Amino acid sequence: MNVENTIEAVAAAAKPAKIADDKDMLRAARDLTKDISEAKPSVYWTDLLLSAGVGYAALAGAILAPGVPLAIALGLVAVLTLYRALLFNHELAHIHRNALPGFRLAWNALVGIPMLTPSFMYEGVHTLHHKRTQYGTIEDPEYLPLALMKPWSLPVFVLIALLAPPALVLRFGVLVPLGAIIPPVRNLLWQRASSLSINPDFRRRPPEGDMKPRVFWQELFGMLWAWVLIASVFVLGWKPILVALAVFSLVAVLNQLRTLVAHLWENDGEPMSVTAQYLDSVNVPPPGLMAEVWAPVGLRYHALHHLMPSIPYHSLPEAHRRLTRHLGSGSTIDGANHPGMWHLVGRIARSTMIMR
């Protein structure tokens, strides 16, 4: 029986919430990664600028392409590169605010505002997903027990993302200015539609401290950009915005697919140990190459990230190698390793078909 089958057998026999902490793994994660815990500005800036630059160039090419095949090819390049650029919002939610001067502002200007997903929609929300006592509970904004739900919930979960880009245009272009003059609209918008969360019961608390001015400026520029997009139809016609919405919709679906396989979603709402949270999360380590496409910016090591949330994305491969070498084959560190996206989709789908 291989390691993965062993872990599945253990999971079938005990609830995730009952898994005790592996103290050796937690100690190794702390001790073996101290020298690789700082973000490298050159890596972050180069990666972001190349991803955004290639993405927008490909998007412009898809809009201007004379033929459909070329437009589709360039559109796919735009999807993958802008998707990678967008996922730096995950890093922004974790890195210390003084670690990369100007990076948050640049990301919002290049990606967050143009794609109508400014950093406030993830900051202050994603960290709740990493709180030991909240992960996998009703208070976790980024957790649904998808593996314990009905089979139809999985395609609905993924395909609803197609509506995200037009919904964001509506949010920023219509509801933000409406909320400025009607407080109940503003309160509802903030509580229910200001975060990249998947838990329908999550209600966001009002912003505090230095988050308040950031929210104001990001929403203001998001509103102005949404108006530009709407007005562009009357100046440039429908094609540019329809192509852009198609690209951004595919980015949203790809991100939702990645979210679907970021965890096993097997917890029923009880608090979990750190090791249980690790085993309920997913690593897709090499040698496979495709994981770097659908889970870029370190997210192919999502379980490891839950073990060490402050480690920068470029250090996760080395951290995984060190822990695997130190703890040995067949240890708990291997329990979160999975071969790929479709294997994980199949596992979660099979779990939804079990009568409970």
Automatic annotation (TrEMBL):
Gene Ontology CC: membrane
InterPro entries reported in the protein's UniProt record: FA_desaturase_dom, Fatty_acid_desaturase
UniProt-listed Pfam families: FA_desaturase
Superkingdom: Bacteria
Any GO MF annotation of the entry: oxidoreductase activity, acting on paired donors, with oxidation of a pair of donors resulting in the reduction of molecular oxygen to two molecules of water
Keywords: Membrane, Transmembrane, Transmembrane helix
UniProt protein name: Fatty acid desaturase
One Gene Ontology biological process: lipid biosynthetic process
Keyword Transmembrane helix: yes
Statement: the UniProt record of this protein carries the keyword S-adenosyl-L-methionine: no
Organism: Pontixanthobacter aquaemixtae
Ranges where the Fatty acid desaturase domain occurs: 70-325
Transmembrane segment boundaries: 54-83, 156-182, 215-235
